[in-house]
Specification:
With 72 residues, the protein is mostly beta strands. It has a domain at 32-72: Ribosomal Protein L9, domain 1 (3-Layer(aba) Sandwich). It is 0% helix and 17% strand. The protein has no helices and three strands. It has strands spanning 8-11, 17-20, 41-44. Strands 1-2-3 form a three-stranded antiparallel sheet, with no helix packed on it. Strand 1 and strand 2 form a beta hairpin. The chain is globular, with a radius of gyration of 14 Å.
């Protein structure tokens, strides 16, 4: 039986979704974004202000984005 690697998605307070593990990011037409192979994680924007969507560029720090969800 093959072991499956678990991908972890961490919600940073007032910041991006940080994905740890091997993932593919594709657009609505199925085209894959190029991810740097040396980076162990991917940060996806959730504030909507990034100039590098769908990736985080730190814009959440200056746009007043607030999000602090907690698991129940």
């Amino acid at each position: 039986m093959m072991s499956e690697e678990i991908v972890t998605i961490r919600l940073r307070d007032d910041g991006p979704l940080v994905i740890h593990g091997a993932v593919r990011v594709v657009d609505a037409e199925g085209r894959e974004f190029t991810l740097p192979p040396e980076k162990p994680l991917v940060a996806l924007c959730r504030c909507g202000h990034s100039a590098n969507k769908p990736f985080c560029d730190g814009s959440h720090k200056t746009c007043g984005f607030i999000a602090q969800e907690r698991a129940k």
